[in-house]
Design a protein that fits this description.
The protein has about 270 residues and is an all-alpha fold. It has ten helices and no strands. The longest helix has about 40 residues.
Length: about 270
């Protein structure tokens, strides 16, 4: 029992480190703005400038926060407090577990993005509009590169193995998915948190079955890319959208059942 609590406690600390990196990025940005406004003798506009820079550069700050986290993890690893396998495990991509996880996240993400498209009020932010109207390069780097790599490194390569040492596979997957979802509380949307939890279950199941960071990163990237795929689907007729939504919804239920069955069996 003590080791179980310790595993959960250490895992929570890594989550706080991840969140702290994002907060540190915002604090540093606010400090730079404050210093700049002070030098310009324009203290009146400081608060407004801080809010503007954070709202207009949220994705850039997210990238910066991820870089801070990666640097911190690198330092921790250098001190041999954790062991991380950065080796590209290409062989894991040919196993059936990876394929089930990949198909599961694709169907689930398409289904969820279809629901978001049908009920726009559920979204915390207009995601695709940010890419189309804003800086698409920053968006791609933040959503399709840094987020999958950093989140999989934190929640699957570091946290999940620690939980698996002292907990059952199902318990470890649920706890790691819960911790992963908790990070998305910053979006202010319960629906987004639920989406992150189910996605976290799929990512954790993929890692527990393949033991490959490479596989889970690719699955994560595929899941994120589905929002762009659904954005293209929305350019078609409503009938086609409904047919696709029903198909991927059925596929999600079937594939999740297979994936969970494999986890329990393994």
């Amino acid at each position: 029992m003590v080791k179980r609590i310790e595993s959960i406690g250490v895992s929570t600390l890594y989550v706080l480190l991840f969140i702290g990196s994002q907060i540190a990025a915002n604090v540093l940005a606010m400090s730079v703005i404050w210093l700049w406004c002070s030098l310009q003798n324009n203290l009146i506009d400081i608060s407004r400038s801080i809010l503007d820079i954070i709202s207009n550069n949220a994705l850039f700050l997210s990238i910066f926060g991820n870089l801070l986290f990666l640097c911190t993890i690198f330092v921790i690893q250098r001190k041999k407090q954790i062991v991380i396998n950065f080796k590209m495990d290409v062989n894991s991509l040919s196993c059936s577990y990876f394929k089930w996880a990949l198909f599961s996240i694709i169907c689930f993400s398409l289904m969820w993005n279809g629901i978001f498209a049908a009920f726009p009020a559920l979204q915390s932010i207009p995601v695709m509009d940010t890419m189309v109207q804003g800086n698409w390069l920053v968006y791609i780097l933040a959503i399709y590169v840094f987020a999958p790599i950093t989140e999989e490194l934190c929640f699957r390569e570091i946290i999940l193995p620690k939980l698996l040492q002292n907990l059952s596979t199902i318990s470890a997957i649920i706890i790691s998915a819960t911790l992963f979802a908790s990070v998305h509380l910053m979006t202010g949307s319960f629906i987004t948190v639920l989406f992150a939890f189910i996605g976290g279950v799929i990512f954790a199941a993929c890692y527990s079955l393949t033991k490959s960071l490479t596989a889970t990163i690719i699955v994560h990237i595929a899941g994120n890319l589905c929002e762009f795929v659904w954005y293209l689907i929305t350019q078609t007729s409503i009938t086609i959208q409904l047919i696709i939504l029903v198909a991927v919804s059925c596929g999600t239920l079937f594939l999740l059942w297979i994936l969970i069955k494999e986890v329990v069996k393994g």
